[in-house]
Specification:
heterodimer, A: 380 residues, alpha+beta, Rossmann fold, OB fold (Dihydrolipoamide Acetyltransferase, E2P), 2 domains, six-stranded mixed sheet, five-stranded antiparallel sheet, B: 272 residues, mainly alpha, MetI-like fold
Chain lengths: 380, 272
């Protein structure tokens, strides 16, 4: 992260353990003012804990939290200038929509006239005009969500923390709310720190994505960086689909995998350094199996609407290839990869755990991630 | 159909043991000893208005004390760690496993002029305190015997409050006092109401406590009714009339309480 200004929120050297199980280890993060930052990772990776530390609900065992350069580690939640959207909204069941949204301003002693104007403005922002006197318990999930957003924003926080706020909504509503949240963030200019385990959500909404696993940051970058230049096998696999192959970096711009040498755009490795090679399924082109081209056998074809997803056996390693051309099961095909579509990563503790599609299914993928999360240990 | 017929035994039970006795009370209250209709019994109840006032007054004080002592206790139990809650709730319930009479007798021996407390005071060289046969002793007996009925509904309502709602209030800037006044207390109102009901009703109509700890001078309605049926003043018709008036008074009190409940909880009204 390149930032000349003081970050609005800074976590420095945060460690925390629950019942002896470490959840965050020496965690450092800076949030730039006005950014939409997403913490992305499997459940148990420590992303919600990070949020609760900034909100003041969890006290770190070590390390400090800074707000606008000021240390706030010991400040109780009610004295922090951040507001939270809770996972299950946590609306006050004994108050109507108006009184829920007005709550923060009332405890801050604002005048009723001021409150009335601001509540109206907030309900307008979340498109809930005319809902002032509704019982919050009788609202739909999406409406409750909007009330929670209005309630948090009514306090004019500098930073809004959102803890998987869309998790309880159905797919259609979730898509709408993603657009809505992004609009609200841009309109208000408030820094959003958004927690999710949904990589698509993270990529489409964020200015910056923080990929986490096992209580540590795996990579920080723009959605494009994270997708195109994953730092290790975990990130490559968690964000989108990836074929991750064992390779050896022979020299700058020359990598060897699948038994042959390829030109690539990566450099800066030791000569003959073992590496992980990432090939995105959409970057592998199918060509006639002529000459000395890399070849494989199609072992499975899935129609995905816009494209076909085919699994190709290349020397025993199963590749996933996404193509608009139909290939029959059992067909012998050639594969071609452009130099700038090869991404080379240093070996990490995640090497060899992801990226082979020999037993592929979406469910398997989920299981693999939750198993990885369990190995990491700890509650979120 | 089947559900309907399954309810018949309960209907019969309710008619036999609730409706018929109530009807009998009404019938007795409106007749004289020979069985002729009269309003004299009801008119006679007016003579005992001071007893009614004393009963309601002492019952109200006992209820207020139970609430003031019981709420913090219920709150502490509800906020303590899971495994400790069970133990604490059991400690609250423990005295109830002992016979009611025995518990009240125990207080007699403690409060008597020559009882344990006064002997302890004397041993310390302090002047004796007259405690037995006072209204204070009666209130103490009521609070002691009925406070679990206050604590349990409060505890159950407090544990049901979603912790994230409390966190949301803190997050929006409410300090501990405001969180309590604006969130915890309103959300626990159903427990407060049912606690008040469950302490006030038995406290108003008790007769053992006042008899044993209040002496002859602190007669309550319960004692009055007791005397009409089992005592020297034998007059079941007057006793029924007093019971009827007491019942109506309690119904009125409960009606007022429920009014409060509705005002406080209609906006949320989820915690029953």
């Amino acid at each position: 992260m390149k930032m000349e200004r003081t970050p609005i929120v800074s976590l420095k050297g945060i460690s925390v353990a629950f019942d002896g199980v470490p959840v965050l280890r020496d965690f450092n993060l800076d949030l730039g003012d006005g950014e939409f930052v997403t913490l992305l990772g499997p459940s148990g990776c420590g992303k919600t804990t990070t949020l609760r530390i900034i909100g003041g609900f969890v006290r770190p065992d070590a390390g400090d939290v800074y707000f606008n350069g000021r240390r706030i580690t010991d400040l109780p939640p009610h004295r922090r200038e951040v507001n939270t959207i809770f996972q299950k909204y946590a609306l006050f069941p004994h108050l109507n929509v108006y009184d829920n949204v007005a709550f923060g301003m009332r405890v801050h002693g604002k005048s009723e006239r001021e409150i009335k104007a601001r509540v109206g403005q907030m309900l307008n922002l979340v498109d809930l005009n005319g809902f002032e006197h509704r019982n919050v318990n009788l609202l739909s999930g999406g409406q409750q969500q909007r009330v929670a957003i209005a309630r948090a924003l009514a306090n004019e926080p500098k930073v809004l923390l959102l803890d998987e706020p869309l998790g309880a909504l159905d797919l259609k509503l979730r898509k709408d709310m993603q657009v809505e949240l992004k609009r609200i963030q841009q309109q208000t200019g408030i820094t959003f720190l958004f927690v999710t385990h949904d990589q698509e959500e993270a990529l489409s909404m964020s200015d910056e994505v923080v990929v986490m696993d096992q209580g540590a940051i795996q990579q920080i970058g723009t959605p494009l960086d994270i997708y195109n230049e994953p730092k290790n096998a975990f990130v490559a696999d968690f964000i989108g689909e990836s074929n991750i192959l064992d390779g050896v970096m022979r020299e700058d711009y020359l990598v060897e995998f699948a038994g042959r040498k390829f030109r690539c755009v990566d450099r800066g490795f030791r000569p003959d350094e073992p590496v992980d090679v990432v090939l995105r399924p959409e970057d592998v082109d199918i060509v006639p199996p002529e000459g000395d081209r890399l070849t494989g056998t199609v072992i499975n074809v899935n129609f995905k609407g816009v494209f076909y997803e085919i699994i190709v056996d290349v020397q025993g390693f199963k590749w996933m290839v996404q193509t608009t051309d139909y290939e029959k099961k059992g067909a012998h095909i050639g594969l071609s990869i452009q130099p700038d579509e090869i991404h080379v990563m240093r070996k990490s503790k995640y090497s060899g755990r992801f990226g082979d599609y020999s037993t592929f299914s979406d469910e398997m993928d989920e299981d693999l991630h939750s198993a990885a999360a369990k190995r990491g240990g700890g509650a979120e | 159909m089947r559900a309907k017929s399954a309810s018949y035994p309960y209907l019969v039970w309710m008619v036999l043991f609730i409706v018929v006795p109530m009807a009998l009370v009404v019938a007795f209250a409106l007749t004289d000893r020979s069985g002729a209709f009269t309003l004299k019994n009801l008119a006679g109840v007016g003579l005992y208005s001071n007893v009614f006032l004393r009963s309601i007054w002492l019952g109200a004080i006992a209820t207020a004390v139970s609430l003031l002592v019981g709420y913090p206790l219920a709150y502490i139990i509800a906020k303590s760690a899971g495994h400790r809650q069970g133990v604490l709730v059991m400690l609250v319930m423990l005295p109830m496993w002992m016979n009611f009479l025995l518990r009240t007798y125990a207080w007699m021996t403690l409060l008597e002029d020559s009882g344990l407390i006064n002997r302890a005071l004397a041993a310390l060289g302090l002047p004796p305190a007259h405690m037995i046969n006072t209204q204070g002793a009666v209130v103490l007996g009521m609070v002691y015997n009925y406070i679990p009925y206050m604590i349990l509904p409060l505890y159950s309502v407090l544990t049901k409050i979603d912790p994230s709602v409390i966190e949301a209030a803190q997050d929006l800037g409410a300090d501990a006092k405001r969180v309590f006044l604006r969130i915890t207390l309103p959300l626990s109102m159903p427990g407060v109401i049912s606690g008040i009901t469950m302490v006030f009703v038995p406290a108003v109509s008790t007769f053992i406590i006042s008899k044993m700890l209040g002496g002859g001078s602190n007669l309550l309605i319960g004692d009055l009714i007791d005397m009409q049926f089992l005592g020297s003043a034998y007059n079941p018709n007057l006793g029924s009339a007093i019971s009827l008036v007491l019942m109506v008074l309690i119904l009125i009190c409960m009606g007022i309480m429920n009014q409060f409940d509705e005002n406080g909880a209609t906006e949320g009204g989820v915690l029953v």
